[in-house]
């Protein structure tokens, strides 16, 4: 019976219900399913009270960028380049022992940029790596803090200061690969994976100079050697030092032929970024103040007089 007829039958005289109606009335209609309530976001994951109290005491925060090193210039009237370097007043303006730092140190010198050198490390760098340049503040903004310039922006900054922009040369990228791959790969093995050279050269520069704690020494030494190993394994499944040194020798020969009797590469009258990139390796490889035990890479380089003079 339709529900509409139930209301009209209520006004009629009542009659005892039949058995059929009793049985039909005893059958309950299935209830309509109720839509499930979506759990509140807070009920998805609830921290136990002990952990919640810990997080309440130590809230998660986003830290600002690293502050400048304490040895940073206070006057702000000079350009300061922060590099890997011995912490010794006698070597304040001496070349860096790190190729990446020495490349930009030489480049700035080539362009006659007046600057001071300060020893530092990656942990003290606001950019997370060395080198970085803290430019002198101008007279108009002498009271405003200057922003550090990372390595990949130094060349652009030099041009903005009136420096000469390196001319485009279609051959330069091809020859730059000899420095960035062949020579660099041999250098990584020479410094970090040759055990004698690592103990007497790399360890004093990058490990013991950072901390006096022996566990820190062990961890840093392991990280440095593993990073060099991982980098070399990107290009070959086997690390073969003889092959690496041969590849470096081929690169030295090609660069020596490219330079020829010229003083600087690509016929330039003044040294540019390419010259600085090669100098960054040759200077350190030939440095007699470093206690190299294995001289394989040095002997390969010394065969090409126009690269070492």
TrEMBL record:
The record, for Pfam families, names: GST_C_6, GST_N_4, SAM35
Where the record annotates domain Thioredoxin-like fold, the positions are 99-197
**Organism domain of life:** Eukaryota
- Report the residue ranges that make up the Metaxin glutathione S-transferase domain in this protein: 248-308
Gene Ontology cellular component annotations, sorted alphabetically:
SAM complex
Per the record, the GO terms for biological process are:
mitochondrion organization
Composition bias (Low complexity) maps to 17-31
Segments carrying the region annotation (Disordered) are 1-45
Q: What is this protein called?
A: Thioredoxin-like fold domain-containing protein
Q: Tell me what organism the protein belongs to.
A: Exophiala mesophila (Black yeast-like fungus)
């Amino acid at each position: 019976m339709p529900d509409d007829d139930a209301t009209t039958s209520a006004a009629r005289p009542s009659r005892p219900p039949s058995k059929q109606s009793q049985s039909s009335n005893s059958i309950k209609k299935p209830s309509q399913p109720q839509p499930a309530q979506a759990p509140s976001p807070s009920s998805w994951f609830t921290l136990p009270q002990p952990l919640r109290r810990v997080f309440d005491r130590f809230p998660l925060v986003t830290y600002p960028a690293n502050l400048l090193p304490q040895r940073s210039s206070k006057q702000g009237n000079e350009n300061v380049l922060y590099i890997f370097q011995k912490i010794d007043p006698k070597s304040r303006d001496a070349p860096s022992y790190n190729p990446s730092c020495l490349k930009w140190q030489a480049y700035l010198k080539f362009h006659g940029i007046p600057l001071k050198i300060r020893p530092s490390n990656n942990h003290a760098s606001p950019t997370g790596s060395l080198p970085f340049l803290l430019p002198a503040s101008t007279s108009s903004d002498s009271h405003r803090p200057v922003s550090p310039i990372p390595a990949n922006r130094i060349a652009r900054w030099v041009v903005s200061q009136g420096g000469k922009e390196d001319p485009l040369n279609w051959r330069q990228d091809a020859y730059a690969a000899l420095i960035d791959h062949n020579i660099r790969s041999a250098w990584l093995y020479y410094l970090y994976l040759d055990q004698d050279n690592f103990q007497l050269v790399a360890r004093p520069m990058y490990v013991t100079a950072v901390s006096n704690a022996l566990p820190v020494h062990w961890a840093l030494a392991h990280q440095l050697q593993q990073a060099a190993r991982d980098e070399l394994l990107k290009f070959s499944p086997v690390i073969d030092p003889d092959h690496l040194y041969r590849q470096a020798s081929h690169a030295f020969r090609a660069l020596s032929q490219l330079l020829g009797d010229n003083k600087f590469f690509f016929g330039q009258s003044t040294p540019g970024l390419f010259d600085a990139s090669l100098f960054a390796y040759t200077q350190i490889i030939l440095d007699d103040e470093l206690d190299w035990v294995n001289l394989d890479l040095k002997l390969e380089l010394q065969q090409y007089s126009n690269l070492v003079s």
